[in-house]
Design brief:
Elements: E1 2-7, E2 11-13, E3 27-29, H1 32-41, E4 51-53, E5 58-61, E6 64-69, E7 74-79, H2 89-107, H3 127-145, E8 150-158, E9 164-165, H4 167-172, E10 181-189, H5 193-208, H6 212-224, H7 234-239, H8 254-261, E11 277-281, H9 282-297, E12 301-305, E13 310-315, E14 318-323, E15 327-331, E16 339-343, H10 361-375, E17 381-386, E18 398-402, E19 405-415, E20 420-421, H11 430-436
Parallel strand pairs: 1-7, 2-3, 16-17, 17-19
Antiparallel strand pairs: 2-5, 4-5, 6-7, 6-11, 8-10, 9-10, 12-15, 13-14, 15-16, 18-19, 19-20
Helix pairs in contact: 2-9, 3-6, 3-8, 5-6, 5-8
């Protein structure tokens, strides 16, 4: 197995000759077979493609992170582009794997735990093997607590009577089958939707894992769960997954089942290859990560994601071009104003005032629309980017003015290492008082 580790916006090429002109983790050489697979297997979304053609035999990745496995056995791991590129490659890989793992746990609604995760040197496996490890650890804990059984109806023909006899079927049987009784009864067994999905995910893991520890534990768990049937209708079985109090200890393994069985790839793949492919848009992961920590921090506001109650215009009384801010902070009391936060996964440079710090015109235009239609330009609005070496404190406020109304726009860094928005009290930013309270 060949593992290729790169970062967002890296180049993958069949041409070895241009590798020396690229920074580490920003370029990788792939085989012609893998290149053809990437170009043909993924149905490209014109608005959000996983990659773009960048010349003959070369593609450039976009903001999707995760892992792709090709039929040749090559694993392409794509990490977030966040750590200073001047750091050595091994440290970058470890830190960015750790970052991606933290964000994935939040995105999957799994409460991140800090215990046992302080040493980033332990993150030396690709993200797909990490997902498999999480699933196996949850399954191991689940089996120790005991699998849930339920009653299932059984319709069989036996030489003895048990349960209920199907009289009409018995009367229609031929004389040579009169010694058999068509009976039905309820049997208490582990054949339920949750266990079928777990068994299906476990069998898939055995085919795709390349890590010796994962393979060994998966085989041990397979022997213990050998009587569990597999799922024939995965989507329908997920709909049947119960969330009652008695099934609460199954919740820990559910997201890992989903990520393994559905692979969470935003693109439909063509062909018969069944390798694991998990791709996640960093914009969405970052938004959910900030949202998670705001919900934990804010008490006086209702934190609402992806609100779409306003539109840019109307056509014959029908709203058109919905405005959908990432996060709306809805005040619980009337003495404070609502606030809007939008997140952008991009490394901006606070020293480049002449080039607008790397902020797009469309970002500021979008924020004006949110401020005007949702807040009537009466309260602050916030644009959050990840903290980096060139952006470690809030920018001086921007202002929108329409007539006599004026609204402030704050561009703030989010410190992913410490999970907090960085603010300065002397800048008189309204969000500072909200977070401080």
């Amino acid at each position: 197995m060949k593992i290729i580790t790169v970062r967002e916006f890296a180049y993958l090429s069949t041409q070895q000759s241009i590798k020396n002109s690229q920074a580490p983790l920003e370029f990788a050489v792939i085989s012609l077979q893998d290149f053809d697979y990437l170009c043909t297997a993924f149905t490209q979304d014109s608005d959000n493609p996983i990659f773009r053609l960048a010349g003959k035999g070369t593609i450039q990745l976009t903001q999707y992170v995760g892992v792709i496995e090709t039929p040749s056995g090559t694993v392409i791991e794509i990490l977030p582009k966040h750590v200073d590129p001047m750091t050595d490659d091994e440290t970058i890989i470890s830190k960015e794997r750790f970052l991606l793992q933290k964000m994935l746990k939040v995105s999957l609604n799994i409460t991140p735990k800090t215990a046992g995760e302080a040493s980033i040197s332990h993150f030396n496996v690709p993200i797909n093997e990490w997902v498999i490890t999480q699933f196996l650890q949850e399954l191991d804990k689940l089996i120790k607590k005991g699998l849930r059984f339920e009653y299932n109806a059984v319709d069989v023909q036996e030489k003895y009577l048990k349960g209920r006899l199907n009289h009409s079927q018995h009367m229609r049987q031929s004389p040579c089958q009169k010694h058999l009784f068509p009976i039905n009864y309820d049997e208490f067994n582990p054949n339920r939707a949750e266990n079928r999905l777990i068994a299906t995910a476990l069998r898939k893991i055995l085919k795709i894992t390349k890590n010796p520890s994962n393979w060994r534990l998966a085989n041990e768990l397979r022997l213990i769960t050998s009587e569990l049937p597999t799922s024939q209708q995965i989507s329908k079985d997920f709909e049947k997954w119960q969330t009652s109090r008695l099934m609460s200890y199954y919740e820990g393994i559910k997201p890992w089942c989903k990520i393994i069985l559905f692979e969470l790839s935003p693109f439909a793949t063509k062909g018969n290859w069944k390798g694991i492919s998990m791709l996640f848009p960093m914009e969405v992961l970052f938004e959910k990560y900030v949202l998670y920590h705001l919900k934990r921090t804010l008490k006086d506001y209702k934190v609402r994601p992806q609100v779409k109650s306003k539109s840019l215009c109307q056509q014959i009384d029908n709203p058109m071009f919905l405005l959908r801010p990432d996060i709306l902070l809805e005040a619980k009391t009337k003495d404070v104003n609502d606030l809007i936060i939008d997140t952008k996964w991009k490394l901006i440079d606070a020293s480049q005032g002449s080039s607008k710090y790397g902020i797009k015109d469309s970002d500021m235009q979008q924020m004006f629309a949110y401020s005007y239609f949702y807040l009537n330009l009466k309260s602050d609005i916030f644009l959050i980017f990840p903290k980096n070496k060139n952006f470690q404190s809030p920018l001086e406020k921007f202002q929108y003015q329409v007539g006599h109304e004026m609204a402030n726009v704050w561009v703030l860094p989010f410190d992913i290492d410490n999970d907090q928005i960085l603010l300065h009290p002397e800048q008189n930013c309204s969000l500072y008082n909200v977070l401080a309270s």
